[in-house]
């Protein structure tokens, strides 16, 4: 469903826009309001972050949001239960961004079953290398949940080919070397890097990490299939700043 949702947007000449939100930041009771509002303003899919005590990929904005969510008592189980409570109202595919330990503690098969009931159509596990994917892959496959791979700027050609072949739904193309967070500058060779990724892939390629302005969205939309925006969305939600969010989404339209 994720790939189809992105391809539908591309067919209209637009680019995919996927906001990242931290589940439980502001309380789990805010999750329904946020997701329904995001789909109302035209996002393609929503990446739902699961708070974790030791996040390796998160910059300060998302790490602090995760800490607030954990202080609110948020768990993977409570997030999935909350999402399931209004799943019939969710019209865009959800992607869970979580780390491996919470899934192992949950049980792979049980997690996959509950995730499907919660409207999750894809999973990103940044601390799980491709070689370890069998830990979870069959359980996800059983529920038709895509296992999305991240590809870094430093990945050699052979590694890109392996990751592109294994990724489902879309490729998460990391646009910076380092952790998440708003940036003002990006590497000059990005366009050539994305050309390599698109040549290696049969599924959409989305850009993520550091994208924080409408200008960034338009820049990446010119050579990718869409963008994932995290820290800026998290900041805007904290400040109830929907004007900023709407401007970012609008920048992905033709």
TrEMBL record:
Pathway: Amino-acid biosynthesis; L-tryptophan biosynthesis; L-tryptophan from chorismate: step 5/5. Pfam families: Trp_syntA (PF00290). The keyword Amino-acid biosynthesis applies. The keyword Transport does not apply. GO terms for molecular function: tryptophan synthase activity. Keywords: Amino-acid biosynthesis, Aromatic amino acid biosynthesis, Lyase, Tryptophan biosynthesis. Its EC number is 4.2.1.20. The active site is at 47 (proton acceptor), 58 (proton acceptor). The alpha subunit is responsible for the aldol cleavage of indoleglycerol phosphate to indole and glyceraldehyde 3-phosphate. Tetramer of two alpha and two beta chains. PANTHER family: TRYPTOPHAN SYNTHASE ALPHA CHAIN, CHLOROPLASTIC, TRYPTOPHAN SYNTHASE, ALPHA CHAIN. This is Tryptophan synthase alpha chain. It comes from Lysinibacillus louembei.
């Amino acid at each position: 469903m994720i790939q189809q949702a992105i391809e539908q947007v591309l067919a209209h000449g637009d680019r995919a826009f996927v906001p990242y939100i931290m589940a439980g930041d502001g309380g789990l009771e805010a999750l329904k309001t946020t997701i329904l509002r995001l789909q109302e303003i035209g996002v393609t899919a929503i990446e739902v972050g699961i708070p974790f005590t030791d996040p390796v990929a998160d910059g300060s904005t998302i790490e602090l949001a995760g800490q607030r969510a954990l202080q609110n008592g948020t768990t993977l189980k409570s997030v999935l239960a909350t999402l399931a409570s209004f799943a019939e109202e969710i019209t865009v595919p959800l992607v869970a961004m979580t780390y491996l330990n919470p899934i192992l503690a949950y049980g792979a098969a049980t997690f996959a079953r509950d995730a499907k009931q919660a409207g999750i159509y894809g999973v990103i596990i940044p601390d799980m290398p491709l070689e370890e994917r069998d830990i979870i892959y069959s359980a996800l496959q059983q529920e038709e949940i895509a296992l999305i791979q991240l590809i870094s700027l430093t990945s050699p050609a052979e590694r890109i080919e392996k990751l592109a072949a294994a990724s489902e739904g879309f490729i998460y193309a990391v646009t910076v070397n380092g952790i998440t967070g708003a940036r003002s500058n990006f590497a000059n060779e990005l366009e050539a890097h994305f050309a390599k990724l698109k040549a290696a892939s049969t599924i959409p390629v989305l850009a993520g990490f550091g994208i924080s302005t409408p200008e960034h969205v338009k820049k990446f939309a010119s050579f990718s299939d869409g963008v994932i925006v995290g820290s800026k969305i998290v900041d805007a939600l904290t400040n109830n700043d929907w004007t900023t969010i709407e401007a970012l989404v609008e920048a992905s339209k033709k």
